[in-house]
């Protein structure tokens, strides 16, 4: 898994998402852009990718496309329409773009090229590389993942609670 932190500025969201899909197809990887304000840290994304891969390996995936499955796990929801709310939006948006070659995580000699895909995404005029990971909006995150004060009072940090929500998606079938 490779991650590109950036601000994404798009007028035509459908065209931007389609271009990310084309880049993914060209390089044999899944590409997903998420609103960085909802991503607590790299481990959040790593866990989502791992669980999406596992769902595909077991034939238990919800989505037909791996990039959408990653989004579902990152958003901790089985509803694609709801998960899309965590994607980037029209206008300017802090983003985290995940590029993942599922073969790379399996230890298989993979044909996907994460590095070339990241460079292709970085070259898009809508993408301005800058640090965005770690600047999540706690209010948004807590609201989205329904994290309560009593949960935080247990001593668990927000990141751990979000990863727990991501992992619980498997159980909620």
TrEMBL record:
Q: Which Gene3D superfamilies match?
A: CGI121/TPRKB
* Pfam families xrefs: CGI-121
Transmembrane segment boundaries: none
Stored NCBIfam families = PRK14886.1-1 (NF011465)
Which family would the database say this protein is a member of?
Answer: Belongs to the CGI121/TPRKB family.
What is the name of this protein? Subunit of KEOPS complex (Cgi121BUD32KAE1)
What gene is it encoded by? cgi121
């Amino acid at each position: 898994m490779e991650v590109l932190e950036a601000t994404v500025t798009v007028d035509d969201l459908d065209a931007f998402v389609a271009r990310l899909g084309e880049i993914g197809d060209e390089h044999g990887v899944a590409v997903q852009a998420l609103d960085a304000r909802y991503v607590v840290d790299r481990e959040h994304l790593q866990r989502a990718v791992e669980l999406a891969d596992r769902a595909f390996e077991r034939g238990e995936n919800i989505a037909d496309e791996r990039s959408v499955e990653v989004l579902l796990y990152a958003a901790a929801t089985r509803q694609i329409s709801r998960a899309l709310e965590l994607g980037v939006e029209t206008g300017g948006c802090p983003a985290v773009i995940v590029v993942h070659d599922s073969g790379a995580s399996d230890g298989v000699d993979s044909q996907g090229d994460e590095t070339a895909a990241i460079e292709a995404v970085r070259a898009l005029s809508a993408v301005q590389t800058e640090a965005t990971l770690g600047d999540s909006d706690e209010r948004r995150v807590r609201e989205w993942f329904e994290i309560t004060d009593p949960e935080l009072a247990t001593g668990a940090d927000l990141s751990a609670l979000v990863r727990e929500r991501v992992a619980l998606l498997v159980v909620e079938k």
